[in-house]
Amino acid sequence: MNSAGASDQIVLGDWVASSGVDIPTIPTYVITNADQGVIASFIALTGEPVIATVTGTSVSVGPGPSIAGQNDAVAPALQAEDGSYVGTAYVGDDRTPYIVAFDESGTVRWTVPNDEPKIGTDDGGVIAKSGIMYDQNGGASGFSVAAAIYSWTSGAYEIGSVHRFPSPPQGFALGWFPSAGDFGLLFASHFPTDWRANDEVKNDILNDKMWAKFARSTCASILSQGMSALAIPNYTLTAIRQKERQTNFYYLGQSNVGALTLQQVTGYELSNTQTITSYLGGANAATVNMGATKQTAVILKAGLLPPLSIPSTSHPEFTLVHELILHAWAAQPDDVYFNNTFFQQKGLWRPDAATTWITDWLSTDCTCTPGRPGTTCTANTAKW
Amino acid sequence: MKSIVIIATALACGFVGGAAGTLTILAREHARPAELVRARSFELVGERGQVISHWGLDRAQNAVIAFSTRGLAGGVVPGRPPLDLTDPNNQTVAIGVLNDDLPFLAMRGADRKTRVRLMLTLWDQPSLLMEDDTGPRISLGIAPSDTPGPRNNSWSLMFVPDVASIGFLANTEKGQTYVKGGVYVRPGKVKYP
């Protein structure tokens, strides 16, 4: 189905079954192929493993990955940064799971028995369900957090616990589809996302606890009234949180993030091929492709996010709320708020061209702008 | 016998003349500079082979002319890799265009952190940043915005963190853009970053 909702039927192959038998079903495993389309892995009626590469509506069919004793086709689970795949095959009568790494032509690179892939790493390797980390050649290269399960927002959880803990500094792949079975990637399976930034923003900073406090704050009330004053409808925290889930955050403190293009981080809704580093320029943060229904990206300068294990002292939550509500969701530039009488009456003040005054105003729970002559309020005092 | 000598002498003279003519033509060709030289990159080296300048693409795919004499002190030491000027962090001075075709000039300190950046934004607006080891201290040119775009027409000289600034703010009212000048000095003191 394309972005306009139109669909195509694509034939992967034709086979003739014996007469008098039911038409057999062919279990087929499909995964995205970067931004090119999908590949489908299945066993043809002739018994050979097959990979069908679908680009647009065209199909090329070739041999699929094959290992001795496999019961079924290799089910690709994630795609590495070099375009190769890692999947699972079940072998023998006892259906022993094997990790199978294979390239786009179906050639098997390596296999590991008794394990399954979970998440790709930026060195071309994989973190397995067991917690063992395998390098790009299938060699065990370390052990991830024991029995950790990486959630769809890539936060790490211990089995049997609801306590989230900072995942170790493993270099997660800037993934097209870097994690197996991740429903969150419905939002981002065809373009690269910054897992670390999404994890830290959505799970650590703008999390349930923060929003629960925000809902009771003066700021929540003022923003609600302010959106009405600006004739921007449907402002609810539910809508804001929905937008947060759909928005991707990119942190320039992470290597190789800054080279991503505006086209990539907006899921190809924009055509600009300039880098997000150039887009950010000298600002602390910048929002690309604003609007509740858009594929929005928020770019964060290096140093804005604290390390996961260290409590924040820099208060990135105020910058993030600024970007998320005022820009990503409401789709208005700062001038609109600065120039609005209602917001001015609520203490928003702009002495110069900087846009960080809004962040400072938010950080006082939307009561006044620190630094304004005649006021004594202090930044970063809001309790949410 | 005499005729054989004459023929041999003529052949020898002809060979010598031809060779002399060819050498003359080649010498003239060498003296004329080539109209086009193509290469992936050029390197300028010091007396002992130390790389002091790189002209070409760097690792960030920026097209640069970059300089650093940091490698001169130790010279070329067997077993020690030479200073790699394709690494942007090793470029003390670099001028060129970024990988998305934005022109820039960058200067780095001994700690390899950027101290001066001069560049155009995506909308061809100039921006000059002066920094210390903790980050930007002075911004001159188009004011940084979190929703950058071609309509961002506010220009300023700003001292970071936001303690002082001078410049003008652009505002659009009923389709007409106006600018308004201003000077701001934050009362009190703020912690140095």
What does this protein look like?
The complex is a heterodimer of chains A (about 375) and B (about 190). Chain A is built from ten helices and 18 strands. Chain A is an alpha+beta fold and about 375 residues long. Chain A is about 20% helix and about 20% strand. In chain A, strand 2 (about 35-45) and strand 3 (about 50-55) form a beta hairpin. In chain A, the strands form five sheets. Chain A has a four-stranded antiparallel β-sheet, with no helix packed on it. In chain A, strands 5-6-7-8 form a four-stranded antiparallel β-sheet, with no helix packed on it. Chain A has a four-stranded antiparallel β-sheet with strand order 9-10-11-12, with no helix packed on it. The model of chain A is unreliable at about 145-175 and about 175-190 (pLDDT under 50). In chain A, helix 4 (about 235-245) crosses helix 7 (about 315-330) and helix 7 packs across helix 10 (about 355-360). Chain A has a domain at about 190-384. Chain B has about 190 residues and is α+β, with helices and mostly antiparallel strands. Chain B has one helix and eleven strands. Chain B has one helix at about 1-30; strands spanning about 40-45, 50-55, 65, 95, 105-110, 115-120, 125-130, 135-140, 155-160, 165-175, 175-185. In chain B, strands 1-2-3-4-5-6-7-8-9-10-11 form an eleven-stranded antiparallel β-sheet, with no helix packed on it. Chain B is elongated and about 115 Å long. The model of chain B has no long low-confidence stretch (mean pLDDT about 90). The interface of A and B includes residues 278, 323, 327, 339 and 357 of A.
Topology, number of strands of chain B: 11
- Total number of distinct structural domains of chain B: 3
What is the first-to-last residue Cα distance of chain A?
A: 42 Å
| Outline of chain A | elongated
Computed Rg of chain B: 30 Å
| Biggest β-sheet description of chain B | 11 strands, antiparallel
Mean pLDDT of chain B: 88
Helix content percent band of chain A: 10-25%
Average pLDDT of chain A, rounded to a whole number, is 82
Helical content of chain B stands at 10-25%
Rg value of chain A:
24 Å
Order of helices and strands of chain B: HEEEEEEEEEEE
How many β-strand runs of chain A?
18
